[in-house]
Design brief:
74% helix, elongated
Amino acid sequence: MTSPRKTARRDAEPRGFAEPAKRAVVAHSAAETTALAKRLNRIEGQVRGIGRMIDDDRYCVDILTQVSAVQSALDSLALKLLEHHLHGCVSHAVASGNGAHAIDEALSVIRKFGR
């Protein structure tokens, strides 16, 4: 069962990110949402596993290997989200005449991954 605190946090707007008036939001399909949730749950399990490895004083290289796997899984999740954003939200914004802002925003996010 989901606690009220977790539900409220998910529904709340992230701090520091005001919703621009011209932002085009294209919802994920039920299948996409389910697939993303499964990926995220798998990543959460991997992170918990790393915590157990540290608690069990496991070999450092084994822990680092798992950290690398989590980073790769997060990168894969981010690329899936970016793909949806470009094909859905940005495409919709361009078609409705508000593409410049959406493209600039997408480029800003892409630059963060290039660091």
